């Protein structure tokens, strides 16, 4: 008779423990294992969320322990939803999201499509392309700050070389109108490889025989692209968009290092504004309401998107 | 036998923990941690404090945080009731929050018991660094480091005959230390883009930083000089007509013109460090910064010595300088309050204050400031005295952070990001501040 791993484990279990566990149902043992995780989840995620909802109806300020906390009802929500500043930040966030995702999808898919072909140096090129996403956002933020420097920055120098515009005559991070594009450029540079990798996985998952069948049916390359490649890569692409959308909605570190939300409020994303309200102005009740609004927005959009993604996958 | 062994082990463990705890407690009572910003004067204070260590037997530890993170780090520490700092040299604007939220210990009884008189310190510094409510004789700090925003310039360039002649030709005036804000602008514009020794130089480096307090500290230098006031009636929070007065609008337009026409490219988020960098690298003819940096600049091997000179913030409608500087407070959460008070008592002594000044700290003690030799003791000493005679400070309310960030946003939006007009910026600022004071229950 062979000795199974379960037999060996049973023999290795101390008798005192075995005595205690014996008599428990499988369900009880399962709960025993899951309980610590559930407890941590409740303590770290659910309780703070409920507490945040409660705080959002008060004027609580974490830096004013002595001040009486008043119940203000929906006032915080009303002030946020009627604030021009907040809507402006939301528009800035939307601008950043739409442009970064659009550029990353277009460039990422194109790169994946090119890389998918067999050619010499393919592996080396792929490695080089994915390098930016391996860097820390703090590093990226700092060195792009230098690249954008009007007097010594390589970016401005290249612009001067290509267009004749003097390098020191414009500041990507400090000029109104340019700063919001400067953060889009950096995010696109850093995260396009991520979209490319996901698209590449999608492209490589398409069986060759489908293209061979299309060739037999005399389908043109253009038709093959739109009727085979795009539909079969679409679920992967949508997943990449979901990941990038969620990541960029909460974008903080890189933009703080590049512009700090400036000049003025031109690159003040909602996440940066929320941090200022919560931990610099210490308007805890107000910022709790702000956080709930952002949470509901992301959760709602993500839910709709996931449903659409599932529909695409079912096709 | 086994039970006896276990008991002995347990007793041993408990005794070890007790001895260890007693040692830690004893070590804590013999240690003080002083928190401040990481800058030149802090290094001088480390040296100065060695005398205190020798006299008292208390070991000094220091926690210095770089300026951009100083307020965040320290205010979080205070708000969380942290015990990191026994002594804190905090910004003047924190005094209201420190007092009202119970972060700082009120020092009146201690001062009375130790015969420390606030009359021994410059009145402007006592008012700004120690009292809350403002001007009331309730002291929460001892004036520790007097400071104001001043200017320094390339004296060697100002004295060159070719440059003087070019300036005369361009403006019809003599090149000299500016005596008004408008003259400062004219000089800065003259130097902007000029070739000196084969290098393109610029007019002036000014504060434009957005994240903490930079642009507010810089622009108020112009605003105060034009006569800007926070309220029509002190304590009434009636800001309409004061904050957005025609003079204030003109001053803000002036600051924007200075930024747009006379500063180096890329200095759109510049504060103390960037101002020093621009000057030390020979890029600018003039720069603004806190007096605290002036001893280091005067001794700089590249641009110090004969190449540099200093001037007080020029007047326009009135002489005025933006107040910097800090008082030293005892943190109420400290587990060594007695030691902290002992340090303050030692620091308040005139001879210690004299040594503090000689080492690079800016004493606020009248025995130092009124000394006949003070004005000649450093090339910037007379300017420092002139500045401290006319200093103005930002709100010192408990909600100062909200008030400050609102001003940072409004000023940066207008000056750097070209959004709206000066009038709109100041009108918007009143709206923001009104909302804060309404939340505070003061309006």
UniProtKB/TrEMBL annotation, chain A:
Subcellular location per the Swiss-Prot or TrEMBL entry: Cell membrane
Record organism: Pseudotabrizicola alkalilacus
InterPro entries, per the entry: MalF_N (IPR035277), MetI-like (IPR000515), MetI-like_sf (IPR035906), Sugar_ABC_transporter (IPR052730)
Family: Belongs to the binding-protein-dependent transport system permease family.
CDD domains recorded: TM_PBP2 (cd06261)
Name of the protein described by the UniProt record: Sugar ABC transporter permease
Primary location recorded for the protein, binned into one broad class: membrane
Domain of life: Bacteria
Transmembrane segments: 29-51, 96-115, 127-148, 181-203, 224-246, 288-306
One Pfam family it belongs to: BPD_transp_1
Residues in the signal sequence: none
Keyword annotations: Membrane, Transmembrane, Transmembrane helix, Transport
Residue span(s) of domain ABC transmembrane type-1: 90-305
Membrane topology label: Multi-pass membrane protein
GO terms of biological process kind: transmembrane transport
GO cellular component: plasma membrane
TrEMBL record, chain B:
Chief place of localization: periplasm
Keyword Signal assigned: yes
Family of the protein in this entry: Belongs to the bacterial solute-binding protein 1 family.
PANTHER family listed in its UniProt record: ABC TRANSPORTER PERIPLASMIC-BINDING PROTEIN YCJN-RELATED (PTHR43649:SF34), ARABINOSE-BINDING PROTEIN-RELATED (PTHR43649)
InterPro entries assigned: Bact_solute-bd_prot1, SBP
One Gene Ontology cellular component: periplasmic space
Protein's recorded name: Extracellular solute-binding protein
Compartments it resides in: Periplasm
Pfam families for the chain: SBP_bac_1
Keywords: Signal, Transport
Signal peptide range: 1-27
């Amino acid at each position: 008779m062979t000795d199974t791993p379960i037999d060996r484990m049973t023999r290795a279990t101390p008798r005192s423990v075995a005595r205690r566990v014996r008599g428990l149902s499988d369900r009880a043992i399962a709960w025993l294992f899951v309980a610590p995780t559930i407890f941590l989840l409740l303590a770290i995620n659910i309780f703070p969320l409920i507490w945040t909802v409660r705080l959002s109806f008060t004027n609580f300020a974490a830096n004013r322990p002595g001040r009486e906390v008043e119940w203000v009802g929906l006032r915080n929500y009303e002030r946020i939803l009627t604030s021009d500043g907040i809507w402006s930040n939301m528009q800035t966030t939307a601008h950043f999201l739409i442009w970064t995702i659009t550029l990353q999808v277009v460039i990422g898919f194109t790169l994946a499509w090119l890389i998918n072909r067999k050619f010499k140096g393919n592996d080396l090129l792929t490695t080089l392309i994915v390098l930016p996403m391996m860097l820390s956002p703090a590093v990226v933020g700092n060195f792009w700050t230098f690249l954008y420097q009007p007097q010594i920055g390589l970016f401005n120098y290249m612009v001067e070389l290509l267009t004749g515009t003097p390098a020191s005559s414009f500041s990507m991070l400090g000029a109104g109108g340019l700063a919001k594009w400067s953060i889009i450029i950096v995010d696109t540079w850093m995260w396009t490889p991520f979209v490319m990798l996901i698209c590449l996985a999608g492209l490589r998952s398409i069986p060759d025989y489908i293209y061979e069948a299309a060739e037999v049916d005399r389908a043109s390359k253009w038709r093959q692209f739109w009727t085979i490649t795009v539909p079969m890569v679409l679920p992967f692409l949508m997943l990449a968009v979901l990941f990038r959308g969620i990541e960029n909605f909460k974008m903080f570190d890189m933009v703080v290092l590049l512009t700090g939300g400036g000049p003025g409020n031109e690159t003040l994303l909602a996440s940066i504004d929320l941090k200022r309200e919560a931990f610099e102005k210490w308007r805890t009740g107000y910022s709790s309401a702000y956080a709930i609004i952002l949470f509901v927005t992301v959760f709602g959009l993500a839910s709709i998107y996931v449903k659409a993604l599932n529909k695409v996958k079912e096709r | 036998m086994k039970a006896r062994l276990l008991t002995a082990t347990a007793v041993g463990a408990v005794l070890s923990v007790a001895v260890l705890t007693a040692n830690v407690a004893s070590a804590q009572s013999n240690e003080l941690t002083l928190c401040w910003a990481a800058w030149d004067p802090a290094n001088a204070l480390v040296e100065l404090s060695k005398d205190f260590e020798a006299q008292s037997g208390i070991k000094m530890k220091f926690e210095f945080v770089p300026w951009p993170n100083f307020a965040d780090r320290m205010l979080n520490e205070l708000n969380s009731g942290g015990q990191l700092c026994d002594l804190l040299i905090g910004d003047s604007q924190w005094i209201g929050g420190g007092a009202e939220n119970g972060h700082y210990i009120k020092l009146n009884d201690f001062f009375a018991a130790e015969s420390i008189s606030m009359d021994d310190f410059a009145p402007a510094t006592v008012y700004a660094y120690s009292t809350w409510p403002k001007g009331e004789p309730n002291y929460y700090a001892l004036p520790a480091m007097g400071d104001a925003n001043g200017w320094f310039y390339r004296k060697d360039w100002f004295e060159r005959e070719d440059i003087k002649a070019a300036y005369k030709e361009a403006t019809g005036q003599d090149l000299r230390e500016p005596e008004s804000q408008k003259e400062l602008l004219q000089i800065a514009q003259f130097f902007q883009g000029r070739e000196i020794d084969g290098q393109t130089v610029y007019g002036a480096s000014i504060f434009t930083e957005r994240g903490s307090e930079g642009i507010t500290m810089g622009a108020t230098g112009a605003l105060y000089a034009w006569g800007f006031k926070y309220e029509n009636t002190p304590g009434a929070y009636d800001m309409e007509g004061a904050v957005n007065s025609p003079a204030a609008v003109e001053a803000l337009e002036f600051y924007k013109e200075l930024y747009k026409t006379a500063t180096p490219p890329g200095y759109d988020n510049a504060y103390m460090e960037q101002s020093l960098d621009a000057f030390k690298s020979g890029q600018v003819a003039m720069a603004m910064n806190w007096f605290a940096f002036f001893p280091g600049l005067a001794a700089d091997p590249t641009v110090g010595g004969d190449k540099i000179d200093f001037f007080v913030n020029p007047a326009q409608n009135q002489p005025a300088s933006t107040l910097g500087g800090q008082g030293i407070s005892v943190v109420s959460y400290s587990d060594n309050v007695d030691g902290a008070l002992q340090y303050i008592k030692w620091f308040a002594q005139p001879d210690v204050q004299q040594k503090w000044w000689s080492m690079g700290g800016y004493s606020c003690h009248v025995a130092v400031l009124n000394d006949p030799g003070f004005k000649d003791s450093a090339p910037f000493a007379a300017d420092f005295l002139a500045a401290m005679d006319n200093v103005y400070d930002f709100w010192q309310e408990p909600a100062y952070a909200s008030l400050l960030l609102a001003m940072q946003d409004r000023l940066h939006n207008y000056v750097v990001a070209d959004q709206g007009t000066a009038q709109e910026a100041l009108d918007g600022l009143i709206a923001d501040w009104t909302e804060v004071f309404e939340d505070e229950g003061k309006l």
